[in-house]
Amino acid sequence: MPFTVLHVCMGNICRSPMAERLLVLAATQRLGKLDADAELGDLLRSVSAGTGGWHEGEEMNPPAARQITLRGGSTDGFAARKLTSAQLDEADLILTATADQSDYVHALVPGAAARTFVLGHLGRLLRDIETTSLPPAGTEPETFAARATALVAAINEHRGEAEPQSGDDLDDPWGRGDQTFQRIADDIDEALYAFVDALLPGAPRPA
Known about the structure:
Layout: E1 3-9, H1 15-34, H2 40-43, E2 44-50, H3 62-70, H4 85-90, E3 93-96, H5 99-108, E4 116-118, H6 119-126, H7 141-159, H8 178-199
Parallel strand pairs: 1-2, 1-3, 3-4
Helix pairs in contact: 1-3, 1-8, 3-8, 6-8
């Protein structure tokens, strides 16, 4: 089973779909530089859901989709989902858009707390992680999963009792213009690139 990252926001049509597909894009770009024969789907699964089910089955919000396609990603096959405890149970890492959504996850599945982070908080925590102490990086599924699992544990240990800051939350861009969606997508990209860097180091970030 590939290492599964579950992205959570409110309606699953703006922030979490962008995070879902931008993680795939960043990891695909990195993998292409490191091992052209490796299949991302064997290593990493990126999925998303919303705490509310109002938009279940819908496509993502058009300005969110535009941000993904502008950056070179794919919006194919997306359909909004409502978050379930089963999705949380199967996820190796849960990334929420806001602290309130992390609280929702904790209430739904208390045992998921150690692998649940506000995305912006994860990005900040990653700056202090000494990745040389992690298992070696590699593009074999078992090697990748071992490093990814150890990375999540290291980030959780470093977090300790520290709470996310208000600036870690991703603003809800729903109903706002492309400029807002671009800013949110940039924030998502920044945190996810840091995550991919830690998982698959050794290639420069694309310009």
